[in-house]
Design a protein that fits this description.
By secondary structure, the protein is mainly α. The protein contains six helices and no strands. Helix 5 (about 105-120) packs antiparallel against helix 6 (about 125-145). The chain is flat, with a radius of gyration of 21 Å.
């Protein structure tokens, strides 16, 4: 009886939302979303480095500074996570063992790019953010070469 009641209760509750990219799989891949996210990481890193703390004693200016700083950090971390997610999807879903013949450094390139995402997430380091952009550009080149196409590397900023 308890089992029946629990089962009925479980059926009445809404199922959790599952999120996935192309578990179908849809076959639609593009490194552009990783590029856009990585650009945002670089942009937020530059903005954070450019922020100047207000003079001591100005509580309102300090509150505004802290709010802006916190927002920039939150965006940087969110975009870093998006970059890593998009890169991991390409690495694990798009690239196949056959691609290793053409790109013997494929795994190392993706592994280092993922590590750069982590470095950008926990630091405010413009050099690391620029390295991440370079890694995403390299992956962009590998991706389009694997498709037998050439797609220009274009950034928004």
């Amino acid at each position: 009886m308890l089992r029946t009641a629990l089962s009925a209760l479980a059926c009445a509750l809404p199922a959790p939302v599952a999120e996935a990219h192309c578990d179908g799989p849809c076959g639609v891949y593009d490194p552009a979303s990783a590029r856009v996210a990585a650009e945002a990481v670089l942009s937020m890193t530059k903005k954070l480095k450019a922020l100047e703390a207000p003079a001591a004693g100005d509580a309102a200016a300090l509150a505004a500074y802290n709010n802006t700083f916190g927002r920039f950090v939150a965006i940087k971390e969110e975009e870093t996570q998006k970059t890593k997610k998009e890169l991991l999807i390409l690495w694990t879903d798009y690239f196949k063992p056959d691609h290793l013949a053409t790109f013997p450094d494929l795994h190392d390139t993706f592994w280092k790019a993922a590590k750069l995402c982590s470095a950008c997430k926990v630091n405010i380091d413009q050099a690391k953010a620029e390295e991440l952009m370079a890694a995403v550009e390299k992956i962009h080149g590998m991706f389009w070469q694997s498709k037998g196409r050439s797609d220009a590397w274009v950034t928004a900023s």
